[in-house]
Amino acid sequence: MRAVTYTRRMKRIAVLLLLMAFSGGVRSQDVAPEALLGTFEGPLVIGRDSMTLAFTFSMTGGELRAQLFSAAMGIYGMPADSVSVSENAVRIAIPRLDLEFTGRLRLDESGVRVQRIDGDWFQYSEMVPVILLPVDAPSF
Q: Which residues contact 81 (CB under 8 A, 6 or more apart)?
């Protein structure tokens, strides 16, 4: 009887250790909104059309803000209505364009600086993948 009880306890401990090990590896890293400050730019390819777009992030009164730039769309600094960062994800909404951008923030080895944003551009019920890279200023 003691051997059965001991075996059950060991199985429970093994399961708990596995759960603890996997739960630590699954958790996302929190990214400070300040890590996004600056401009991120990349191509937006819709069908045969390719255009460059950029988001410039800034802080105003402790709140993260974003502006959209796209020469092809004739937009030079349109402010986003909402910008949010949760863990390692960013969400930007501009309802007057029926636009929402969501992206995963990819950090450098130090875990402090955003190296790129792997995102999705949602507009007029269409989703297009976009990769944005940091730049000094929009290139257009």
A: 93, 94, 95, 96
- CA 94 – CA 82 distance, rounded (Å): 7
Pair 44, 26: CB distance under 8 Å:
no
Per DSSP, 11 falls in state H
CATH of the domain at 105: 2.40.128.20
> What is the reported pTM?
0.77
Residue 42 lies in a domain: yes
Determine, yes or no, domain membership for 27.
no
Distance CA 114, CA 140 (A): 22
CB 56 within 8 A of CB 25: no
Give tens-digit pLDDT for 112-131.
889 999 999 999 989 999 99
Q: Are 68 and 94 within 8 A, CB to CB?
A: yes
Q: What is the pLDDT of residues 46-98, one digit of tens each?
A: 889 999 999 999 999 999 999 999 999 999 999 999 999 999 999 999 999 99
